[in-house]
Structure prediction request, 81 residues.
Amino acid sequence: QSHGDGAVFLAKTRIIRYLHEKLGFDVLAFESGFYDVPKAWELLRNGETATTAVPRGVFGIWTGSRQFTPLIDYIGARATA
Prediction:
């Protein structure tokens, strides 16, 4: 069970960063709205900050967790790179 468990969110963030930085993975999928996630990505690519764009597209079970913040920051830093 990972819903609402901060330790699991931290572990997932570390795994995602490892897969992206070390193994070249370039797709990240969330258990969120089919329309909402692409819209959040569009907002990021058009210059909206990750702290406002990501919560608009990813379910609050993720974005409401303080332990998810490092991943939001990571996504934002990579969105325009």
